[in-house]
Structures are given as structure tokens and as C-alpha cells.
């Protein structure tokens, strides 16, 4: 069975040494987020997930959730583990102190989200969705709603969901049919069918707070007539006790490729009582709060599966004896060399390593900016951070899930035939990782969001929040004797390609939107490689400094430098191909009549 | 549920118009392989597989094989479908007439293998493995063995297997422990455990002929002491009737990520009676016959899953209404446009289409050369063909399975959330496709075979069999007004990169084998794109000719030209990145100590 150990040292390196989190925490008034506290949370969290939720990962896959007459039973051990999880306070980490949370920075929440997903992605989704619903209510709910629901959501006593998709509409929510009839008492009666509702019904919490998109009859057509509603599974009395069952029921659960431990529900709303959250017909705005946080979280899921798959593939590569090194026997005392001596096994391991460590830095950088956007005293700085997060989010979601899946597949490949056998657990990582490319906006939608919405915003204002620091870094460090040649030069080359691609996409896209659309996928991936290259160059710089200072873990910093080199040598060159594809234009993509495919 | 229709028209285009199969058939004495016969086989075969085996694909996945006390039961309907399959003579297509076969060319067998695998990969493996065992016996068995076993294997009455892997050895067969003790009567008693034996035990045929690698005690150490044995499940009497059960039993079957309908067995040999096939200690040579044919077949499996996934994704893309085209509404009469209007959906469909059609042409070209290698009257031409097949095989196997898996994943992506739900059948294609990257030599092994064995053979003799025709084609057609600029120029650019890469890999690899090893994966993929580019340029040439001639299916040829352009525009540029990665060298791949990963 696979095992998992949280990569604490790498989190510490990125948070403390590269991103200087403590400085940010002080600026933003996170007085409880000292370096010691952060380290303790990571260590305790890592320990808890390794010991409590990771051992349930395979059980969850094998048993799946069971549906009987509307009642959903989670796999053996899930309910008990969730109780421990709530007791230990893991759900409340970043929630407001006012609502019983620990008020820690979001960036720490993102680190913990990675750890939780690596340990058990299906399990982690229950509190993950609750967190998303909590955030949406926090920002858009009334004070009364917040007081009534947030404390129990922060603690995890109640879980949350997001209800968007219907059988005939996923991406295009304007086609939505679920309706909300206003009642005399200010509430609404919700009727309709929602599908693909993760954690929509289960036995782990005493109540479930559904956030549901629906249309108020008579409102504007399409997406502009969609509103957000809070619909509890059980009505909540004024004293906080639970009342009658509401008119929402689980019609069935899906049989899926993976994340079997999470219930994916069809929810039938039949005159279910709900309350408007935020403004009428502004449901999408409120939902987007949830979706943006969720997209970052989903990106981290991709990373998480690559990380846990990597850890196990590495163990296997050191244990499995097969063949001899092509440069001569390395383990003469054994019947064969461990397969980690073989260059192609190393290619796969190094690729995953460069991806996970680079992506981790990128996700945590985004997380820091998320905290700055929420709490920085300077409005200008808040806006800058908000812009940057908006620009990075679709890329983080799509690239990290797409490449995370590929890396999980690579890690499985290291096992040879054993990777295909369920007992080894590697194929589950691949199956679980696969969903992250689809939900919270399929990756193609992320690419379109990037080039169609984020890139043009403010005539490139969002893009400049990323381009400027990268450009400044390159200018500053290009001639640096330590990192200039090996790390900054390759980044500069890739960045120039991104600049060219940006001009091409913007200019052609103005004349013909299909040009931007057909380039969007390659553009997103080119952007992602530059962003990872930026993180790797910054990590190389810090590693060089640490080595020059002496002391500390020399092997760790030297390994960082080698991995950075590998990224520059063997992954960043894809930017050349991506630019060429973008420059080739949309014609051959768009030319065929649908009937001629 | 997904459906499947054999792409007959595309097979005909490649076989008749591009590869001019009829000319080859006449040269090689395949008098029964007229154009009409080939067309009839493809059409009847396509019909049979669509109607008989394709409907069992999901049943096979859901039920899987069952093991009880050594007895394996295949999924509902498999046994009956296999009876029909044998009755219709599909197993005997390319088998020798002497043994009751139809004596048709191998290239037609490869076309049918694609069709069979698209329809039901798990099912197709039963006759597929029988075919491999048939070929090995045909080439290396004694006349007596051939007369005794081949007729029933050709008809499919008995199935075959190949037994290589043991728990501690897969790639490195020198570590093998299964032993074969010589007996006074000339037979051997085989004892040992084999794992991952596809179709190793089942209820579809009355007998199973196992080909088993084992070591004769006292023979040379390692791989040089391995011999091949024929071990029937039931002893075969001299009159052809079945005798006693042999000492081979199925200890268990594996729970796998996919191909659930095929039994993957642990086979325990306990003093099982077997007979030497071919020469003592030369088992690997005999097995390689089977493995090379099998590798081509496995490459085609990758293609087959991409093809069937594409067909269904295309239907979905035309049916599913979601959003409006970014260049303006295309279906005003509908609530939304079909998603095929969206550029990124097209990018995915075009990518799969360019892959499947290019790969099909490549596989069939290899198949034609396989026939030439076996039957051409001129020895020199036979050797050339044999060289070319040897050079192409590892690339066909690795590239077509790796990219086939990626394409199946892309097709699944077209479905959005529904792609993740088992009922739609898309996720099965992905899971089934995954194994093809692993078995018959994991893809990394193929890459090593290519750069470590095939490339240096005869100081580049094998490579020249590919390089020369490509180079001649480019020289000849570079200035062609019809195809020069759009199709031959991009090919020439990519081919120059392959030539550079070949020099780099050869020169550096001589000094340090790890350089070749670390470059092998990128080299294989660069080679594959050039090979596909060659096929696309040739197909474009034929399409242009056909259009100039007038008549025929204009849409079909114009679509070929657009797809060729898409390949040149959006897929071939990857060669730039692959060359850059190869040029970057092995250092960062090989530098880390195993403990520092």
C-alpha cells in the first residue's frame, strides 16, 4: 500500500526562505502566524493526515460511497476520521476567529490543502467544499446568515456544498432551469435538479449547507438572472438546534473513474426552503468567490496527486532491482541494480520533482498574494495582489491539474506492470487526479478565461502584475555570477517567447476571437512554464545564498540547484514549441466543417 | 453507451491509394489479396466487431473475469462471441493455408487488429495473444509441433499465451527462476511461477497453449540460459484428442486499472510437462519473434483506443449544446451552440484526428514492410524491410501507446464532467489504453532499445532505411507547387532536427551511454513526429492528386489536407523542444545521488 509523508522541509523552504511569509504575516496583522506556529501546523497536520486519513485512501477507493433510499454512507472509517479531524481543529485553520476559527493566513490553508489531498483526495473534498461555501457566505451572506451558519461550518460540524451543474448545463449556466419562487416570509422555494454535487449527501456531519444557483421567475434571461441561495439539509432553528428535514434529497450517486470515497450526488430540490445570499440576480458574482478559491484548491489537487505518486515511485525505484546501469554495475552485491540508476527512470522522477516543487512554490506565492489582496493596509497593494491572483488562477488550475495527471501517470509508469495493478495503489492516484482537469471549469475553459477575459482586462493590467516582477527579476539577475547563466538566461528566453505570444494572441484575437481561442491552450501552458521558471530561478537564488552562508542542509540546497537546472534543461524548452504553435494561427484548427471531422 | 464504426474509408485510402497494397500483394504472391477481398474483409470485419464484440466492451469492464478455485470465468457473452468469432474465421485471417488459415497479408491483420481493439480491447487480446504464439511456433517450432498445434491455434479452437514475467523479474529476464528439468523422453518438467499472463486461463477455448520461458539447470547464467517451452493446459494425444490436465494452474487473477475483460493470471507451473521450442538456451530469440509482432500490435492498441474515443467525443461535440461561439451564434434555432464550435474543443478533436490517421498510416506502412520482409523474392529487399521494421517497431509501440493514451484522455475531456462518469464509457477507454504503455516492454525500454540497440546496429544501417526514403522524398517534393510549401517544408525542418539529434545522441552516447539513455525518450518522440510528418506529407500528396483528378469524395481529400496542415502547424513544432532537450544533455538528469531525490 502506498504511503505519504508531508514534504515539510520543502514547504518551509518556500514559505520561510523564498516567500518570506513571516514578513507578510506581520504586515497583514496575522500575529499568531509566527514561523514556529506555521512549522507546528505543518508538522502536526502532516502527521495527522499520514496517520489518520492516508490509510483510508484505498479503503475509500475500494468501497466507495453507498446510496440507499436517499441515504449515503461513506466508506468504512471516514466518519470516525472526520470526527477526529474536526476535533483537532483542522477545518477551522483559516476561518475567522469571530466564528471560532484560528484566523491563520490562507497561504497556510493552501499548504494544508496539498497535504490533505495527497493523503486522501476524496476525503479532503468534504472539508474542502465546506471551506469554499464558508468563504462565499462570509463575503456575501448577511450578518444574520453568517452568525447562524458560519460557526458550525468553521468547526466542520456542518459541511457545505456548491450546486451549479444541471443535466443540460455545466459550463453554460445561463441555460439553468432550477427555479426559486419568492415567499411571503422572505424565503424562497427552490425546485430543480442539480448533478455532480460533490459531498452533496453523506453521513459524516449532522447538517449540510447547500449553496444553490437558481433563477427567480421573471428575472433577466440567461446568466444575468441567476441568484445564489442557501438551502440547509435540515432547517436550523433560531436557537441553533436542528429542525425539520428540508425538501432536498439525494436521487442517486455517480459511478466514477475515481474519488470513489467522495459522494457525487444528484440532488433533487422539491420546494426546498432557501434564502437569498447576496443580491438578487447577482448569484454568479457570489459564486465566483467560491469558484476562484476552489480553482486554486483544485490546482493544488493536481499537485497533490503528483507528489504522493512521486514519493511512492521513488521508493519503488530504489527498491526494485532490475537490469544493470548502462555505464557499469552500481550494486555488485545485488542480483541487479535498483532501477533508479536507469536514465529514463530518472527522467520521469526528475520531471515530477521539478513539477511538484515548482508548482508548490507557485501555489504558495498565489496564496500569499491572496492574503495580501484580502488584508493589506494599502489599497493599491491589495488591488495589485487581487489582479495577480486573478491572472494566475486559471493557469494554476489548468496547468497544475493537467501536468499533475501526467506526472501521476509517469509515477505509475515507474512501477512497470505493477503500476497497473490496483493493490499497489498507483493507478488510483491517476484516476483520482483525472477529475481535477474537469471540475471547477474544465481546463479548456480556464484557458479561454485566461486569454478571453483576464488578458484583455484593463488593457493588460492583470498581465502586467505578473510580467513586471518577472521582467524586473531578469534585468536584475541576468548578470548575476551565481544564477545568471544557468537559471536566469533560460528564463529570459522563455519570457521573451511569452511576450511575443502575448502580442500575437492579443493582436490576432482582436480581429478574430477564434485566433485567441485556438491559441489559448498553448498560451496557458507557455505562461505556466514561464511562471514555474520564475519560481525555479528564485529558488535557485535562495539555494545559492544558503550554500554561500554555509550551515543548514547542504544536500537539500544542492538538490534544489540540480532540479532547477533540470527544469531549465528539460522542461522549459517546450516554450519554443508552444510559441510556434501559437504563431501558426487558428486556420487549420477552425477550417473543417463539423460534418467533415 | 459508446459506439464504434470501423474507419473503412481511411483504411482504404491508406492501403490502396497511399501504400498501393495491391502492387505489393501481387509481388509477394498474395494472389487472394485483391482490392475487392481486402475491402470485403475490412467491411465484414468492421461490421462483425461493431455488432458482436463492441457491445460487450462495457459488460467486460463491469463484470471483469472471475477466479474461483483455479477456474476463470470470462464476462457474460464473451464465450459466445468468441465462438462466433472463430466460426467466422477471424482468427485465421493471416495464418498459413497449410494450417487452415486464409493466408492473407500481415498488413491486413494489422488493420483488423486495430478494428478489433477499438471494438473491445480486452476481448481482442485473447485472439491477439494466440496469434503471437502461433507466429513464434511457426518460426521456431519443429514440424511435428507445428502439425500438432498450429491448426487449432489458427482456427482459434485453442488459444495461446506468452509467459515471461515473474514476481521479481519483468524487464530483466536474466533473473528468471522458473526451471525446466529434462526428462528421458525428451520432454521437460517445468516448475515456477509466472505473473501478468494475459489470457492465461479462461473458459473460452478447450485448450490453452502456453509458451513459457524457463532455465534448464546447468545452463549459462542469466539471459543466455533461457529456453522456450511449449506447455499445453491439457495434454494433446497423438490423434489430436485432449488428454490429462497438465501441471499448470491459475493461482489468482489480478485486479487491474482496466482491460477487466481479459484475465491477467498468476500461473503456477508444478512439474508441468513441456517441450523445447527451437534451440536450447536460445529462448529469447524465439520469444523476440513473438515480442516484435506483439509490440506492433500493442502500438495499434494505443491507436485503437484513441480512435474509438475520438468517434464518441465527436458525436458528443456535435450533440452537446453549451455556450455560444466566440465569433457569433452558429445555431440560433437552438438554446446554445454545439460545443464543436469552440476552438479548444476543435484543438482536441483535430489533435486526436491527426494522431489516429497519421498513426494508422504509419502502422500500415510498417505492416507492408513486415510482409515484404517475410515474402519478397529479392533477399536484399527483404533485408531492407526487416531493418526498417526493426527500426520502426520500438517507436510505433511507445509513441502510439503514449500518445494514444493522451488522446483518449483528451476525448474524455471533451465530455466535461460526463467523461468522468462510468456510464458514458469514456473513462474506460483511458483505463484500457493505459496498459499498452507498460506491457510488451515498458515505453522507456522501447526508447532504450531504439537508441541503444537499433540506432547503432550496422553503424546506422537500420536508421538509414528510414532516413533515406524520407530524405529522397523531401528532395523530390520540396519545390512541388502542390505540397512543397505547406507540407514538405515543415517536414524538412523537423527532419533536420532529427538528423542533428541523431548525431548528438550517437556521438555523446559513444563517450557516455547515459547521454544516449537520458536522451532516448525525447529522441523516440522526435523520430515519431518526423515519421508521422512523412506519412502526412505523403497522404497530402495523394489527396492533392485525387482532387486534381476530380471525382471521388472531394470532402474526404480536402479534410485530409486540412488535417495534414493541422499536424504540421500544431503538432510537428514539438520537435524543436525535443531537440533542445536532447542538446541540453544528461547532466541534470543523472547528477543527483539516489538519496537526494
What does this structure look like?
Chains A, B: Its EC number is 1.3.99.41. Chains A, B: Residues 282-450 form the Acyl-CoA dehydrogenase/oxidase C-terminal domain. Chains A, B: Pfam families: Acyl-CoA_dh_1, Acyl-CoA_dh_C, Acyl-CoA_dh_M, Acyl-CoA_dh_N. 2 copies of one chain form a homodimer. Chain A is an alpha+beta fold and 597 residues long. Among the domains of chain A are: 8-150, Butyryl-Coa Dehydrogenase, subunit A, domain 1 (Orthogonal Bundle); 159-282, Butyryl-CoA Dehydrogenase, subunit A, domain 2 (Beta Barrel); 462-586. Chain A is built from 18 helices and 11 strands. In chain A, the strands form 3 sheets. In chain A, strands 3, 4, 5, 6, 7, 10 and 11 form a 7-stranded mixed beta sheet that branches. In chain A, strands 1-2 form a two-stranded antiparallel ribbon. The model of chain A has no long low-confidence stretch (mean pLDDT 97). Chains A and B meet through helix 8, helix 9, helix 10, helix 11 and helix 12 of A and helix 8, helix 9, helix 10, helix 11 and helix 12 of B.
Amino acid at each position: 500500500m502506498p504511503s505519504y509523508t508531508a514534504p515539510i522541509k520543502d514547504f518551509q523552504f518556500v514559505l520561510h526562505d523564498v516567500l518570506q511569509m513571516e514578513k507578510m504575516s506581520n504586515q497583514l496583522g496575522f500575529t499568531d502566524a509566527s514561523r514556529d506556529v506555521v512549522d507546528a501546523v505543518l508538522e502536526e497536520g502532516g502527521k495527522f493526515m499520514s496517520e489518520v486519513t492516508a490509510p483510508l485512501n484505498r479503503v475509500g477507493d475500494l468501497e466507495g460511497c453507498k446510496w440507499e433510499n436517499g441515504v449515503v454512507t461513506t466508506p468504512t472509517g471516514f466518519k470516525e476520521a472526520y470526527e477526529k479531524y474536526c476535533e483537532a481543529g483542522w477545518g477551522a485553520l483559516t476561518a475567522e476567529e469571530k466564528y471560532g476559527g484560528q484566523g491563520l493566513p490562507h497561504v497556510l490553508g493552501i499548504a494544508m490543502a496539498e497535504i490533505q489531498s495527497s493523503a486522501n483526495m476524496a476525503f479532503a473534498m468534504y472539508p474542502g467544499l465546506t471551506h469554499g461555501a464558508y468563504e462565499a457566505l462570509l463575503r456575501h451572506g448577511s450578518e444574520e446568515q453568517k452568525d447562524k451558519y458560519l460557526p458550525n461550518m468553521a468547526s466542520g460540524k456542518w459541511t457545505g456544498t456548491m450546486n451549479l451543474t444541471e443535466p443540460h448545463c455545466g459550463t453554460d449556466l445561463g441555460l439553468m432551469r432550477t427555479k426559486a419562487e419568492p415567499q411571503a416570509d422572505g424565503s424562497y422555494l427552490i425546485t430543480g435538479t442539480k448533478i455532480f454535487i460533490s459531498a452533496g449527501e453523506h453521513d459524516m456531519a449532522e447538517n449540510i449547507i447547500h449553496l444553490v444557483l437558481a433563477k427567480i421567475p421573471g428575472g433577466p434571461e440567461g446568466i444575468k438572472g441567476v441568484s445564489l441561495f442557501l438551502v440547509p439539509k435540515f432547517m436550523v432553528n433560531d436557537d441553533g438546534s436542528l429542525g425539520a428535514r428540508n425538501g432536498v434529497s439525494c436521487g442517486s450517486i455517480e459511478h466514477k473513474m475515481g474519488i470513489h470515497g467522495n459522494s457525487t450526488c444528484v440532488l433533487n430540490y422539491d420546494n426546498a426552503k432557501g434564502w437569498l445570499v447576496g443580491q438578487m440576480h447577482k448569484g454568479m458574482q457570489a459564486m465566483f468567490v467560491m469558484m476562484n478559491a476552489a480553482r486554486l484548491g483544485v490546482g493544488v489537487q493536481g499537485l497533490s496527486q503528483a507528489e504522493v505518486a512521486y514519493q511512492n515511485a521513488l521508493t519503488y525505484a530504489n527498491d526494485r532491482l532490475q537490469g544493470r546501469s548502462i555505464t557499469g554495475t552500481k550494486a555488485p552485491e545485488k542480483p541487479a541494480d535498483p532501477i533508479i540508476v536507469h536514465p529514463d527512470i530518472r527522467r520521469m522522477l526528475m520531471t515530477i520533482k521539478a513539477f511538484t516543487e515548482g508548482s508548490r512554490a507557485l501555489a504558495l506565492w498565489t496564496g500569499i498574494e491572496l492574503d495580501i489582496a484580502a488584508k493589506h493596509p494599502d489599497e493599491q497593494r491589495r488591488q495589485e495582489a487581487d489582479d495577480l491572483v486573478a491572472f494566475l488562477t486559471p493557469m494554476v488550475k489548468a496547468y497544475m491539474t493537467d501536468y499533475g495527471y501526467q506526472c501521476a501517470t509517469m509515477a505509475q509508469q515507474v512501477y512497470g506492470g505493477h503500476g497497473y495493478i490496483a493493490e499497489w495503489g498507483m493507478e488510483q492516484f491517476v484516476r483520482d487526479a483525472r477529475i481535477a482537469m474537469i471540475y471547477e471549469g474544465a481546463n479548456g475553459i480556464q484557458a479561454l478565461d485566461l486569454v478571453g477575459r483576464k488578458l484583455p482586462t484593463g488593457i493588460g493590467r492583470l498581465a502586467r502584475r505578473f510580467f513586471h516582477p518577472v521582467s524586473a527579476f531578469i534585468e536584475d539577475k541576468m548578470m548575476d555570477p551565481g544564477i545568471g547563466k544557468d537559471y536566469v538566461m533560460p528564463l529570459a528566453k522563455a519570457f521573451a517567447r511569452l511576450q511575443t505570444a502575448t502580442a500575437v494572441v492579443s493582436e490576432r484575437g482582436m480581429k478574430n476571437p477564434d485566433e485567441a481561442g485556438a491559441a489559448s491552450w498553448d498560451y496557458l501552458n507557455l505562461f505556466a512554464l514561464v511562471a514555474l521558471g520564475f519560481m525555479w530561478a528564485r529558488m535557485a537564488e535562495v539555494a545559492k545564498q544558503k550554500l554561500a552562508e554555509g550551515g543548514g542542509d547542504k544536500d537539500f540546497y544542492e538538490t534544489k540547484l540540480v532540479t532547477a537546472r533540470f527544469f531549465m534543461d528539460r522542461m522549459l524548452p517546450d516554450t519554443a514549441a508552444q510559441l510556434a504553435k501559437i504563431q501558426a494561427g487558428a486556420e487549420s484548427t477552425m477550417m473543417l466543417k463539423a460534418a467533415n471531422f
